[in-house]
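Much of our argument rests on the idea that a fold can be written as discrete symbols. This step matters because it turns folding into a mapping between discrete strings. The record that follows shows the chain in one-letter code together with its fold in token form.
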Amino acid sequence: MDIKPLHILGLGAGIALLTVDIMLFMETRWFMVGIVLAFAAAGAPFWFSLLHENRRQREIELQFLEFMRSLTESVKSGISIPKSIVHVAKKDYLVLNPFVRKLANQIESGIPTRRALQIFAADTSNTIIKRSISIIVEAEQSGGDISDILTAVVDSVVNVKKIKEERKSSAYSQIVQGYIVFYIFIVIMLSMQLWLFPKLIGLSSNLQAGLAGSNLLGAGSAFNLDATFFSLIMIQGFFAGIMIGKFSDGSIKQGLLHSLILMVTSALLITVIKGSI
């Protein structure tokens, strides 16, 4: 990911929030909340950039489908592929326009069509487009019927997008369940820390002494249950997010976005309720 002014601004905001937090809330229960907010502010621009890029890639795929349909119709009318590309590039493909214009300009300047198509696919950084262009290039080299191949590529792109949408819609309930289960896990952990363990400690002084002596529980314990539970929640949030992203979009990158949401919201929830981790 390229570093943009927005990212620098977010990092600056995070540093500013952290500085204010240290200066004003160092000795209060809101200190850890401020730290979580500072890190969230610093990472928010990167998160929004990933969301924007995912949305942009989906739009590129849609416009590529329109481009391929126009190209197929032009080739079927008897026009060669280079001339068809130059002709259909004059249409409006929204977010795909810069790539299509560059492709047409390269062909007009004498760059071989095969090479220009490969550059076009590389510039878009889209897996579906790279795969489709690779099929077209291989078919052109083997001497097959290019119009039939273009039709097959269009059908393939349509089917891939349809499968993605069906998987996303069918996985929606699993996404909701994943979030609900995770937050129930947080509630259980907080209940154990704030209610169950203090009750157990208060049952009798003998029980408290026994647990403290075994280094399992107690104020003087060397084993920090708070830090352990917080680590468990962060680990759970990280892997739950990856699982949700893999189920819904088939992408670990998208899963990292869910992981970030779960980890930040759970950290905020814990620090607000407890005043610490």
Q: What stands out?
A: The longest helix spans residues 31-76. Residues 171-277 form one domain.
